[in-house]
Structures are given as structure tokens and as C-alpha cells.
Design brief:
185 residues, alpha/beta, Nucleotidyltransferase, domain 5, five-stranded mixed sheet
Length: 185
Amino acid sequence: MDRAVNPILRPLQHRAVADEQTAELSTKLKICLQALKENIDTQHKRRIFSDEKCQSVILQTDATWSRGKGMIGGLVKTSQGMQTIYATVKQRQIFGEPTLPINFLETITPTICVEVFKEQLSSSFFLSTIDNDCAKEALLSQGSGAKPHIAAASAIFWSRLASISSSTTWVTRVPSWQNLPESFA
């Protein structure tokens, strides 16, 4: 829950679990509801501040796994156009969980794409999108609490990113239908 909204919702949460249920609202609850309404009515816009010398880039990655075979793919979109990569993966090439390697593949694919597209990512702010919660969490927490092979993939991602001059990324999860490599994988 957002820290800004939490104090507004707390009295409403207490009311929801209270033993006494009446239709009448206390003054405190009316103030909370009014503050919540004003907060919802306000348009919140995300602002991204960037250096005008740096270009904005989108990196999208995806992986699939079925019947002992997989595919990894990625694309990078810049102002100059779009480039893609795809590779097939066999079960004997997977490190870690050979029975269900999709989380590892989803985590290692951004790492591979950072290496392949390092020229396009250099000196840029880029948005990295993936459609797997495990991979997103592993990358954001830099592998903390993940299985060793997934943590290693995350560590390699950040070390490869650090080797690219003046680059920074924002890792986010998108629904599969919005992830362009999904249609090719």
C-alpha cells in the first residue's frame, strides 16, 4: 500500500473489522473518505527526468519453455529503430532447475540482451520490461533470497550493466500480451 494513502485508509480498515457496524459515519471517517476522494480525483503523473544528451531506449525480453526446449528473445527500441535477437535453448544447457527452468531463463535473458545490445544501451536511460514476477523480483532485489542460479543471473545482469558507460535502467513487469518478444517466442 502506498505510504501516502496508508494513513487515510487505516481508519477505514479499522472500521471494516470493527465489531459494531452502524450506517452512521464518524467525523474522522468522513474526513478520511473526503481525503481519499481528493487523492483519487487528482491526476498523478510519473515524471522521468533525463539528460538531453542521453537517449531513451526500451529493452523487452521474454523466454518460453515447453517439452524440454526453450527460446529466449529480446528486442531493443531506440530512436534509430528496433533490433531483435532470438536463441533456442535445450534442457542440457540449463543451469539450476532442469525440470522447470522458465524462471532462470526469464532472469538470464535480460542479462544476455544487455551484453548483445550494449552499444545501443550505452549512455542511455532504458526501460527493461519482462513478463515474469520471479525474474523481476530477482533483478530488483539483486538476487536476494532467490535460488543460487537465479541470484547469479541477477548479479551478472547488474555487473554487465555497470560495465556500460553512463547507463541506467528501470526494470518493470508487463502483462505477456504487452511484451513484444512474446509474439515471437
